[in-house]
Amino acid sequence: MTDTSTTPQDPTGADPRPSGPAARVQNLTKTYGSGQAKVVALDDVTLDLHRGEFTAVMGPSGSGKSTLMHCCAALDTATSGSVLIGDTDLSRLKDKELTRLRRDQIGFVFQSFNLVPTLTAEENILLPLSIAGRKPDADWYRTVIETVGLQDRLDHRPNQLSGGQQQRVAVARALASRPAIVFADEPTGNLDSRSGAEVLTLLRRSVDEFGQTIVMVTHDPVAAAFTDRVVFLADGKVVDEIREPDRETVLDRMTRMDARQLDRLAGAQA
Amino acid sequence: MFKAAWKSLMGRKLRLLMSTFAIVLGVAFVAGSLIFTDTLSRSFDAIFASSVGDVVVRPTGTSADDGPATTRTVPASLVDDLAEVDGAARADGNVSSFSTFVVGENGKVIGGQGAPGIGANWSDAPAAHGLEGLAITEGHAPRNGDEVALDAGTAERAGFEIGDTVHLVTSSAEAVLRPTLVGIAEFADGGSTNGATITVFDTTTAQDLFVGGKDAFNDVWVTADEGVSQEELRDDVAAALPAGFEAVTGDTAADEAASELVEAISFLSTFLLIFAGIALVVGSFLIVNTFSILVAQRSRELALLRAIGASRRQVTRSVMFEAVVLGAVGSTIGLGLGVLLAMGIRALFATFGLDLSGQDLIIAARTPIAAYAVGILVTVVAAYIPARRSARIPPVAALRDDVAMPESALHWRLVAGAALIVGGGAAMVAGLVSDIPRPGWWVGGGILAVLLGVAAASPVISRPVVGLAAVLYRRIYGSVGTLAGQNALRNPRRTAATASALMIGLALVTTMSILGSSAKDSVDKTIEENFYGDLVVSNVIGVPFSTSIADKIEKTDGVASVSRLRYAIAQVDGDGQGVMGVDPTSLRAAANVPMVEGELTDLDDGKVLISDSRAEDENVGVGDTVTISFPNGKEDLEVAGIYTTDNNTVLFYPYTLTLSTLADAGFQAADNYLLIQTEPGADVAALQRTIEEQTAELPTVTVKDQQGFAEEQRAPIDQMLLLIYALLGLALVIAVLGIINTLALSVIERTREVGLLRAIGLGRSQLRRMIRLEAIAIAVLGAVLGVGMGLVFGLALMSSLADEGLEVITVPTLQLVGYVLAAGFVGVLAAVFPARRAARLDVLQAIATE
């Protein structure tokens, strides 16, 4: 299978921000299975995720965007290549160290909220800190709570909260430990557009106000429009990138990618 | 619909099989006890068929039951007359005793743990229905007092070969015999002796030993001519008999003998069936739990079935179908295990001297029928509650993300539980205090009802306990503790049902511990207070021993007195009653006999002492007469005094006579106990050694001081407790498996949550600790409830038994604390597998799990 697309600009190109990358992906390849059943999920991906930047990773289903995120987030291991969070090379770490890294350096927001049902909102938010045995920074905690706007919902259990509220709790949980990088996997996928917009605004504000680095996987051009940079993946490769995207540009690129995909399918059948 | 149910069943084989383990065990107990009972009775049927003649003639009222040998006999002249009866081919007299034991070369008694040591005269008479009976297969039959034959099994176990000198112990005047082994006897038709030992003497020697040297026999076999039935011959023989003798057919005699023996041994079956019941009750809790969890996990799938048009009934039925399949599988495995269990019991009995190895296991039709009926029924009944709940899942749940199972309100369970507790408590009180028939059933049923009531109400009752655990966990273990505590609290039904299984087992263990330790302390106290004798000579097997032993001890320096105690069984109004023979004067010196009326020394020849309960039943008082049927006939005896059997170490049978009255009544003279008083200043320990030397050749006879005597009295209680603990231990194993199963299923149910916790940085060891803490909370909850219930049951039972001599109530506090601690440890063990499983979950897949 050959990639007939042309890359309009070098994806690893010059960094417009001075702060350097929060995470570096170098020649990352991830394959599943072997022989005939071998599937290449990521094919020699190289990418820098910049500090203080809100990055969206987009692409059709099966493009490898989730795998990319899982590998960056120390949830999955690469077949070859490396991922660096700050200066730490994940491929050199054992399970215990990976767990610690996730706990201290990485925050997560999942599509299906994934709160612990037995704990209150506040306990959920503080859980990563509490697992680590660390005390929350009181000022920071207050800031986070105010930002997500859940002051009067802290004693509620997840099942007493709406989907949007649950996802805001999840965002607060991700921010509470001041991680180097927050990964969000389709955070608005299960929300209506208004709740979704609230959550996206929240993520945007944490980038703008606290300098948080966020990487978000999404399908939604509206969600992508909240970010600073959109990276497009197809067939396990980075195929395109937009800076300062708006909904129309994203939609346009997606359509073009779809067209290319269709062309290729037609070509393969011919 | 069934296809869907079948597929879902196959998809969770392992999980379901784990939960059927309890059913497997319960069914195994049912099947095992049935198989063992059938095998036992078949085997004894076989023996007794070979040990009766076509017609048996015996003195009236001397059936082949377990009473001590009587002195009543059939004279040899009558045997000759019987051979002349029409239809009789021949008549042969038999002499037999049940307390002739063979001592092996290692100085230990062969068999003799309850199996009789049969001593008999040699006779080549055929057994009933032309069976060959005992035949000499090696060497020759004994011809004089210096010769003896043994059954093949005994000779082999003792290590004797033909020509060896055999060491025998008898209850006759000659305590020790050392004849030469000249023959090996076997049941020609392949019957086994089931562990009994058979020693064959020549007729004259047997008569000298067992019927006082008269030319007489204990019974006579009359063999039928060809074509004459047992009944015809019996009628002809009966017509020829003088008064005082009776004729019974061989079949009847064999049945009598077999059924009494089998009944005596089959208490074990009752025992096993009770534990099968416990295992099944405990198991049904786990099934309810497992099905509830499985149904909850599948709620979306079931809702989907409803959404595409399945009716409620179909959903319920599909779950019930799974239960039926599961019950059938569990029963099948249980049946197989039951066969192994029966083999195990057979092997265990062989070590106690009841050797059934000659008999193949009997699996009658009722065994598999009972096994499948019990297994499937229990599973189906237990699965019905979750199955019904599953039908209440609304179809719309298929479209929702979070499906909560419809739950009935807890307060109904509380009400039902309270009703069961009150009803059960009332039944217990009724059984313990009032005079209703079958009090055991009332008490047992009451205990079961209370246990079920507590189990039903336990989601509510357990809240404070689990809540306390949650608070402690939070304090000690921080967030991991908080998570564990919350997990234990999140589904109170599940936690409580899992803990209930442990509760039931531990409640029973605790009850037994209290009963056992109280009984032992009562024995100690009674002996300490009422027993003054310095030494006790007794027979470990409980069979009488030769009077020559007492004669010898009486002549020993330093011995002040030897008081002999003898036991016998006589008939009163058609019922067998225990009768004791004592010497009042020497007994008074050796023990305190608690008298209600009169004095021990008021007992004289021709008079009787009677127990208070017997006096009440018979409505007799001092001065009245009672009529007792002895082997030598009926006797009217004047009541000289009334004693109580409570705290009575020596008189525990309802009637007590003097030694000479007992001897005149027709019982062979043999002692069961000797109570020895030493002279003031004598060295008791030295005297004990002297008597031990005197009885060195009699391994069946032991000499004990007071402390040793108390230990001997406690030993049966210990053995009983050990057996009960062992069986209850199985109930606990089921409970532990239940915890493992519930936790494993919970982990599966919470896969996504586990994945999330791991993703946000919970380490593997922290995850394991979380699950371990939850398991400990469940186990300790079960232990606290169980020990609490057991305390209530134990104390209630003890206080109602206080009137019957068990006045000491001992609560083995340390032991009970030990149970709770052990439960905590059990929790740790139970968590190992689910925790490891959770820790191994792939984080990514876990998060992606629906």
From TrEMBL, chain B:
| Record bears the keyword Transmembrane helix | yes
Tell where it localizes. Cell membrane
Q: Which domain of life is it from?
A: Bacteria
Q: Which Pfam families match?
A: FtsX, MacB_PCD
| Main subcellular location of this protein, as a coarse class | membrane
Sorted keywords for this record are: Cell membrane, Membrane, Transmembrane, Transmembrane helix
Show the stretches that span the lipid bilayer. 271-296, 323-349, 369-387, 414-434, 440-473, 494-515, 722-748, 773-796, 816-835
Q: Name one GO molecular function term.
A: transmembrane transporter activity
The membrane topology of this protein is: Multi-pass membrane protein
Domain (ABC3 transporter permease C-terminal): residue spans on this chain = 274-395, 727-842
On whether tRNA processing is a keyword of this UniProt record, the answer is no
MacB-like periplasmic core domain location: 17-239, 495-693
Q: Name one GO cellular component term.
A: plasma membrane
Q: Which family does it belong to?
A: Belongs to the ABC-4 integral membrane protein family.
Q: Which PANTHER family does its entry note?
A: ABC TRANSPORTER PERMEASE YTRF, MEMBRANE COMPONENT OF TRANSPORTER-RELATED
Annotated protein name in UniProt: FtsX-like permease family protein
Taxonomic lineage of the native organism: Bacteria, Bacillati, Actinomycetota, Actinomycetes, Propionibacteriales
